[in-house]
Amino acid sequence: MSISVIEGYGLLATAFYAVCIGLVLVLIYEERDPSTTLAWALLFVMFPGIGVLLYVLFGRNWRNIGRADRKRAAALLHGHETLAPMYARFADSADALSRSEHPIVRQLHAAIHAQNQTSPLPCADVEIFSAGADKFSRLLADIEDATDHVHLNYFIWEQDALTERFCNLLAEKLAQGVEVRVMYDWVGSLLYGKRQLENLRRAGATVTADAAQWQKLNCRNHRKIAVIDGRIGYTGGMNMGQEYVDGKPRYASWRDTHVRFTGPLVAELQRLFCERWVRTTDEDLFSARYFPSIDAPSPETAVWAQVVHSGPESHWQAVRNAFLLAISSANHRIRIQSPYFVPDGGVEGALIAQSLGGVDVHLMMTGVPDKKIAWWAAFTYIDDLVEAGGKLSLYEAGFFHAKTMTIDGEVAVIGTTNFDIRSFELHDELSVFFYDRSVAEQLDALFEADLSQCAQVTLNDVERLGRRERMRNALARLSSRLL
User: Which is nearest to 352 in space by CA: 368, 341, 365?
Assistant: First the structure.
């Protein structure tokens, strides 16, 4: 090898290390978590070339980048301006919630408002679906009755018999003059064919892939939103595909939770859809057509709720903070359902502290994993929780994908957010906090019914893990921020 080639390699290595030093200084300046900064620094020292590539794909601080994104700021401002009259219309009732006799409601109301500038709104006709067949049947019926527009946003849009039914129906509605817009996450739907969606696009629908930039490979739009005519809204854990009905071909069954409601609260789902839509397509939908005036439900039927949302570009980790506040405010019991359990230190500590303090903390997660690394990592967080008196149940009848929480039988949470660091930090997520005892009772009843399909993990089960399993789980935990 010639001296000039050796010198060239030396210059390249020096350049890589200079870049790495610069990135470490950036990490320090951004006041990242010290363990995160040190982990990146170690990677840069050992593998400078690979380290720079991984940093570009997985390490950039999108929260800081998002603050300087004018297009995002304009979309958020337009959304708040559009909903401001509705917030003003229900301000007196929202203020009453802020003076609720239940401290948890007061605190959540204030915290969500401070982070998202959103207020509680009433909804009605709340339907909770624990089976995909029921949810998709109801959604097909609502689309069949649509007269103006259908907006659909899913993390995963598969290509199978169920999606064909939806695409065919949507094509029929297009022929009747109904506007159809479909947004799916680029990475989440990458493995599925697009023939049906292309046919739907040719029929007149607007179909777009969200978060398709390679720089945001690690940041996904994990929301599931359906809005029909601005008057009916759906959200929850179910994506668009036959798998969410029967679990086939990978699982014996699929257990999930989704919610449908009507009333003014639907405008919150519409706003989140429109904010992403204008950023992705430049089509501005913030008009009275898509945010129609909706009569308030009667006091006897009204259910008050508040939507909390956040993403990798958000100023606050609003969903995570709302979860943490809800857990910390519980006095009697906490019921959590999530397929994965990979919390950050603050959320994990709150659950342990509540368990030690005598609060009945019960977590339910899948016992039939789809992502084994995330599942293995979960068991490194479970031992302290179980030792502190918390309970863990593993759902074994099929894959478990529900994302719910209840606090003291007073507050119910249904949304798209998994109980993991990825959902808290790297995904665009939403969760609906229902300040309603009847909704909480329904979720608690579902929890109790699901227990018949679960095996409870005891402290003995955790202690019986062998060294090999413990090492495997500990290694999986190292990638917690990517799971």
Answer: 341
